[in-house]
Structures are given as structure tokens and as C-alpha cells.
Amino acid sequence: MRKQLTKAATRLLRLVLPSVLLIGAPIAAQVPATLVPAKPVAAAQSVPIVPAATGVPTLTKTDVDAWLDGLFPYGLDTGNIAGAVVVVVKDGQVVTERGYGYADRKAGKPVDPDTTLFRPGSISKLFTWTAVMQQVQAGKLDLDRDINTYLDFKIPPAYGKPVTLRNLMTHTGGFEETAKYLIAIDPRDNRPLDVALKRSIPARIYAPGSMPAYSNYGASLAGYIVQRVSGEAFEAYVQHHIFAPLGMTRSSFVQPLPANLAPLLSKGYVIASDDPKPYEIIPLSPAGALSATGADMAKFMIAHLSASNPLLDAKTARLMYAAANTPIPGMPAMALGFYHEDRNGLNIIGHGGDTDWFHSDLHLYLDKGVGLYMSFNSAGKDGAAHVLRQRVFDSFTDRYFPAKPVAQPTLATAAEHGRAMVGNYVSSRGSTTNWLRIANLIGQPTVALNPDNTITVSSLTDPAGVPKRWREVAPWQWQEVGGSDRLGAKVQDGRVVALAPQGFAPIFLFVPASTGMNAAWIIPVLLVALAVMLAVALSWPIVALTRRRYGYRSTVSGRPLRLRRATALTAWIMLAIAVGWMAMLSALSSDVAYFDGRLDIWMRLVQLLSLAAIVGTALAVWNAWTLARAPQKHWATLLWAVVVAVAMLFLVWLIFDMRTLTPSLNF
């Protein structure tokens, strides 16, 4: 059961987390293979980058194409990925646009970077944030004003501070994570943006500006604010003020796509060998509804890299790209909408994006005038697309902009600081007021100190699933042994209050798990409690059948017998509750259709069972109390009754602590 729960929760969390944060190590050695159908677009060759040192490849179309062609066909084939598009730009020109694999595998339709639309997921937010900055530039929006002044509904006050656009753009609005209505399949679930925002306002779990917690809702609020102050529907605003000026003729936020673009959309897959999946509706459209070709994304990157940015003036652009929040000292910062991915001494900003079927990344090398965009139409076997996209970013950066190695010895404080890091952690981006709080309990990262004073984080692994080792190279900063990834901690009064690897740091952190949310003891105790429930539940029919077979008569009757039967029934109910929540978590992780509210009736049913279990637990406690006060005690029976009552009390505590009895059906 634990393995099933962990697998389900991990996939659910992967869906709602931006996958650029997935830390992937280099995949197996790339073996050149015959190119799968593709149609590279001829483009004017850019001015080569002057190599930093002898032997560094120059960033030209010829070199980039050869490098990509040696990487992508093999990666798609071994990863069971249907298709991908890759675009590289520099100095206002397209270096290359490459399509690999299939947009429609069954029809044999290849990916064409000029005409095939992909769904870049949360990269859509960059268009939303660009629109916000246009309105800031026009004087219609103030980054530090209470957003309620721009809305026709109210975000309830919390922690004595208003939410501002700056908070939304740095993901520090303090909103709880929400999953319901995140993605839909039925077009009837594509509600107007204002309706989608008003029907499910997330709880505020942090003071504004205090904690990064990536928020789709916050980004969509920003898009709605643009709609309000501009007087144009969000989709129309982006069309008129971003797509049209850039000549992005094959891009749209409209859902479903307009008739002229719908036939050009790539199919979406989990793995290439399976059937294609249905079109995904993103009700919170500013957060992830974009459909665009690789060629159009090249135009967007060029605009943001250009000194004469056609979308923003120089002052506004500099403000947008500059560090606006640094949650972990020494780790990459959050800009206004973009997050920093700085490495090799370069100023890099970007964003990742995922729907359930499409997986994408965009990176802008501001110092070099270079942009890299890639999108996959399948997750692939064991999440191969996530590993491949990280590999492409790392390898592209190291190939064309290598850093001179700097020797950094392990600090003498490695053991002391490593011990301070040990423990279980939970993500700052999560649910705390509804039943998805369960997901925070499953698969918690665990930090351990190794004999050589390196540390490991259980969730940060290489492609083989082995946790990476990290050594301290600066105070409270660790570097991957044999790699370049960094891990940092935030310390207050000598105590670790947060940690994050470099890819996570701008938009969410891992904070030490509280006692009441620490899986190190809760999961083992939960498994023992469920084992006790299973023993009680099975003992009832087994004892009854044994007595019937051998003609034994029970020596217990009256109230004691009724209490025992009530306890046995409660055990069955407890097991049903556990199976119910596990099944719903599994359903959410396996089919996006369940995000539309169809689980509501099952949630209510399990809640009713929970109320019955609370009553049954009271009876089990009464049963143990009765046995303890009996003049003639059967110690084995009493001990077992106490064990059962304690196990049930723990499960009732968990029912309340996991917020499974909340009146609201939102999650």
C-alpha cells in the first residue's frame, strides 16, 4: 500500500509542479542513430560566438544541428517519446529550428517546427507576466498596490498584509496549492476566467512576500487583472499586444483552438507506443493554456533578448529580468515572472512548463543574446522527457559556454552543518487545509549525513535512482559530488529553516517537517495501525466460521458482544477509508478527467464513513475501559482491546490532521 500511495502522490505532484525543477543527471551515453522524420527549417546563420577557450565549439547552425541530431533521435527512441521541437536563437536571428519524431504517430505525421503546435504549459505564464509589465509600463498597474483594487471580487485578507502584483510575479502571494479544475477534458469545464477564479479561491497559508510557493492561481489572477484594466479578454489582449506585434501567427490561448489552428496541434501522449490522449483544457488559462509552434516561440525569445524589445521598453525589461526575490542566499533568484537559472557564470532566466502530456523548457542567456526552447509531446518511459530536457540544457550550456573549473575544497564545517540538515522536509508548495495534505506526507525528502560528511537528499537522485551526494563548498551551500548542481540552506538563529537545490530555489523551498507532518514516524505507525485493523476485521469472519465448523459457542454475550462487533465493523470502516483516499489519490494521478469534480460524491461518502469511524472508535475505547474495570480480567483480551483502541485513536487523529473532514469539496 505504501508503494502505491507513494507512486500516486509522486505523479500527482509532478503534474502540478513545474518540471524544470526536476533535477536530471546526464542520460546514458548518446549513440548516433538514424534521424526520425523531421523537417528542420532553413534559417539565416548567426554570427558565431567567440569561443571562451581553444576547442570550444562555436554556436552555429551546422554545429548545433549536428549536436542535436546526435542527441534527440536516440533520446526519443529509447525514452518512448513520440515527438519534440527544439529552437535556438542568437543575436536576433534563428540559429536552428528542429522537429523530431511525430506529431501524430498513427498518421505518420512528423513534427514541423514551423507549423506543428505544442502546448508549453506554464511557459504560458511568461506571456501573462509580459502583459502585466506592459500595463505597468503604461501606468495602469502598480506592482506594489493591493491587487484587490484591480479586482471585482476580494481576495480575503490574511496575515495583515495585502497581496501585490510583485507577490504574484515572485510566487510569494502565500496561496495554498490547488488541483481541482487544474486540467479538464470536457469542453464544458472551460469556464470564463472570472468564473474559474471566483469558484475556488485558495487558502492563504503564508504571509505575502514571506515564502515562495509556486501558484497557478496567482498567475491567473494576474492575467485577469490585465483583462480588467485593459478592457480586453485575456486571450484577445495577448493576441493583439504580443502575438500580432511579433508575427506569431500560429499561437493562441483560445480553447479549444480556432478552426485554422486545431489541425496543426500535435497529439499528446504519455508514452509514444500508447494511444494519443484527449485535448487538455486549462481553465486557469493565463497559467498554462498556450498553444504555439517552435517558430513562434523563437520570435518570443528574440523579442525578450533584443535591445530594442518590441514588447517592453528597456527600463521595464531590465526591471522584469532583475532579481526580485532570493529565498535562499547564494542560490538563484526569482525575477518578475522569469526565474533565474544562472550557471557557468552566466545570467540565465527561463521557465519550464508541463501539462499532463506536454513537457517544455525555455532558457534565455541574457549575457549572450541566446535563447533555447524545447517541447516534448510525451513524458516518455519513466519520465524520460524530464531527464532529456535537463540534459539538453546542461549540455548546451557546458558545450557553448563552458566554465573554467574552480577548485572548491570541502569546508571544515561539513559535519556540523550536515548534522543540522538531517531530517524530513515538506515542500512549501502544497495543500494544508484540504485532503491533498496527504500528498505532503508521502514521499517526503529525507536528508542524511554520510560517514564522509557529505549529505544525501532522498528525492534528488541520478537517472539510476541513486541519491546524489553533496559536499559543503561554502557556508550552508553544497555542490553535487562529481557534478555542478548546487544545494543551499537558509538558516535563522543557527537552525535550518529551509533548503532547496538550485533549480527549485526561486519558486518553492523544502522546510523541516513538523512533528505532526513527519513521515519518519507517521508512516510506520500508520502501517502498524492498518495492520491492527486488518487483523481485527479478518478475525470476525474467521472466528465465526471456526465456531460454525466446530460447533463452538461464544462465551461473550450482551453488551460486551455488541461492543466487540462494533469494534470489528469499525475496523472494516477504517480500512475502507484508507482504500478510499488511496483510490482517489490514484485516480487524480492517472487521469486528468478526475480534476473536474467527479470525485465529489466519493469524497462525501468517505467523509460519512469517517464520521462512523469516529463513533466506532469511541465504542472501542469504551470496550477497552469496560474490560479494564471488569472484576475478572483476561489480560490478553484486555491488552488486545487497548492496542485496538489506541490504533483507532491514531487513525481518528490522522483523519482530522489530514483535513479529510473539511466541509469544502475544493482541493
From TrEMBL:
It comes from Sphingomonas panacis. GO terms for molecular function: hydrolase activity. The chain crosses the membrane at residues 521-545, 566-589, 601-625, 637-656. It comes from the Bacteria. Residues 1-28 form the signal peptide. Keywords: Hydrolase, Membrane, Signal, Transmembrane, Transmembrane helix. This is Serine hydrolase. It holds the Pfam family Beta-lactamase. PANTHER family: BETA-LACTAMASE-RELATED DOMAIN-CONTAINING PROTEIN (PTHR46825:SF9), D-ALANYL-D-ALANINE-CARBOXYPEPTIDASE/ENDOPEPTIDASE AMPH (PTHR46825). Residues 71-390 form the Beta-lactamase-related domain.
